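Hi R.,

Quick one: here's the Alcohol dehydrogenase sequence you asked about.
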Amino acid sequence: MRAMVFRSFGGPEVLELAEVPRPQPRPGEVLVRVHAASVNRLDIEFRQTGFGFAGPDFPFPHVGGADAAGVVEEVGEGVTSVRPGDRVVVFTFVTCGQCPACLARRPENTCQSYQLLGIHRWGGYAEYVCVPERNVVPLPDEVGFEAASCLPVSYVTAWHGLVNRADVGPGDRVVVMGATSATGIAAVQIAALRGARVVGVGRSAWKLARLREVGVEGAVSLLDEKWPQQVCAAFGGRATVLFDTLGRTTWAHIHELLERGARVAVCGRTSGVELSTNLLWLYRNVTTVHFYLSGQRRDLEAAVAAVARGLLRPVIHQVYGLEELAEAQRAVDSGETFGKVVVRI
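And here's the predicted structure, written out as tokens:
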């Protein structure tokens, strides 16, 4: 099969189009003919350095791509929920099924021996990808492959934090930190879908201007030194929910942003991993904070249903061919994209 592989970590120049063996589904697995995949920061950072997931004995060549959607080509022994010809989108988070968290049926993202598609196992930048049966989610005809490929990382992460963790709903005032990123845009859309008022915070002026298209009532620039006050002014009060992809920048000002009893969902650290904040203020104001990675299969199912009903429309910046993956990743890495970049296989 054709696949974009890399044989060492490095820049986009390490990507090459190659012929590699097509995976064969083992018992309990599903082989998917990939029609579309999308580009995530996760894919880029892993290709650059291994991103803390890969040791010196990492087995190259590797096929990246954490997002994939397509059609079931073949199923392994014992698979009953899908059959060849079914349209599916792939859930990124692969659980072990054997650790205490899995045996206790805790959320998938608490698995102690998890794997991520395109990181620990070959991913979606290929004509075929093989995953466990529980990692394929049926795709209605109303949802195109390109739109579906946007969902498993960015939209699942946002849905999990805002819906499953923070329980956002009407009456909430949601501030999205890093709102101009792909995950931030997804968070804006999902919070608005849930009936909340939304203010987005970011750096790029042209992207902030475009946030109006996806549901914000206020867009605030981090380049304004009084940005926390601007957020509160846009709401006419403090936020009841904060969705954070930034890390350090957010936490230095969190006491200026939040209402008493607020909920916080943290899934990123693009401005720094070390946090300095006022714990006394946080607990005296009964602040609930959720740190989390990715999401659950049910988040992907819910996002697919919302797209199928026309309630949610993934924002796609541009579509590239598989052989243009290096260019697609350069575009995302440059920060000059608004929404998701998709690779058509």
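The chain has a mean pLDDT of 97.

Cheers,
M.
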